[in-house]
Amino acid sequence: MRYYSTKNPVVLYSLKEAVLKSLPEDNGLFMPEYIPRLPCSFFSGMEKSDLTTIACEVSRAFLTGDVPEEEILKIARESLNFPIPLVKLNDDTSVLELFHGPTLAFKDVGARFMARVMSWLNRDETRKLTILVATSGDTGSAVADGFFGVEGIEVIILYPSGKVSPLQEKQLTTHGQNITALEISGSFDDCQSLVKRAFLDLSLREKYRLSSANSINIARLIPQSIYYLEAGRQVQDKKKPLVISVPSGNFGNLTAGLFARRMGLPVSVFVAATNKNDAFPLYLSSGKFQPVKTRTTISNAMDVGSPSNLARMDDLSGNDIHALRREVMAFSFDDEQTRNAMRWVFRDLHYMLDPHGAVGWLGWEKYNALYPGCQGIVLETAHPAKFLEVVAETLQTEPELPGALRDISGKEKISILLRPEYALFQEYLRDRK
């Protein structure tokens, strides 16, 4: 499998180049030269399959020819060694729980897979690989956990000060060793902009071998398609049209869903559910993209005003807005609507949603009201305990803290505070030993 830039499909790159470079020189995003269609026998036998088998099948489809078979199987099995259950809440709605990994968020899937792929691709290099990652919350904690102690790789995490939950912050600032946290006094978009500028900085590239662990890295997206297929495997009624509602910020998650659809998963429509940061719903409506100024919400991991993966979504749809509209619908919701959804689902269905899952729930409910007769899957992207303060205030009850969060809550935060100015970030990297 080779890869091209969304800005230039003519020039092709190897898997190693695409993953370890993360961004092509033209500042586009890497895409596989084709999305492999899984065989009909795979889908006809899905009910008797399991998550490990699906993970191995998808990993083979993308990595065969670049990574040995035994290593592919090892990567797949180690990356997805936790359950991803589909929980039915009523006759037409289920929730896919993506929070059973080590940092209790969906990004564990992509980060663990990427760490293992990168480690293997980087095995013969003599110079250290430096990963720059911007996070609005869960990416940072998943990447810190996935890459902690990986030989030959160091990770620098940029996160917006005061805009991640306290427990999220502890998860990404308490590792030490090869993990460094930079606390940026700005927004997620400021963090993402600093990372992108660093990749285009030739003076930094002379000092560092730079890569990224954000969803701009194709190695993050490939494994995320696996849990869409796992959701499809668990659906009991295969006759109703399937709609999947995805809480969306930087749109890597939804892009992975579009990958799964092209692999053969029979999804009728994806719902892109956003909070007040509604750049994508506005884009689908008008056909013209305009970034919005990032606004802080209780679903902080989705506080993105200029989603990077829109370039990939456009590429998948042939840069045809009408084609994209046939696959994706988009709705945005404010904090009050999000809290009301959390309360309703908890009171009437006895299920506790985190704020992001609640936005996904709202997206499905709105779609279902407009187009009834489908079955919906809502992605619950993080454990509600990761947003303890918001959940407790909204529901007047506290979620039980899983052991992983109890263990980390008492650890000391270690971070370096920087203003969102590229000259300061550049100076920090240049002076770093």
Show the helix and strand layout.
Layout: E1 3-5, E2 8-13, H1 15-21, E3 30-32, H2 40-44, H3 51-63, H4 69-79, E4 86-90, E5 93-97, H5 107-121, E6 129-134, H6 138-147, E7 153-160, H7 166-173, E8 179-184, H8 188-199, H9 202-207, E9 209-212, H10 218-234, E10 242-247, H11 252-263, E11 269-274, H12 279-286, H13 310-316, H14 321-327, E12 328-332, H15 335-349, H16 355-370, E13 375-380, H17 388-395, H18 403-409, E14 416-418, H19 422-431
Helix pairs in contact: 3-4, 3-10, 4-5, 5-6, 5-10, 6-7, 10-11, 15-16
What would you say about this model in short?
It contains 19 helices and 14 strands.
**Topology, number of strands:** 14
Largest sheet: 6 strands, mixed
CATH topology of the domain at 83-103 and 221-401, by name, is Rossmann fold
Measured between the Cα atoms of the first and last residue, the distance is 36 Å
- Rough outline: globular
Regions with little confidence, pLDDT below 50 for 5+ residues: none
Strand order of the largest sheet: 4-5-13-10-11-12
| Helicity level | 40-55%
| Mean pLDDT over the full residue set | 93
Strand-pairing-aware structural class: alpha/beta
CATH architecture of the domain at 83-103 and 221-401: 3-Layer(aba) Sandwich
Radius of gyration: 20 Å
CATH C-level category of the domain at 83-103 and 221-401: Alpha Beta
Instruction: Give the helix tally.
Output: 19
Strand proportion, as a percent range, falls in: 15-25%
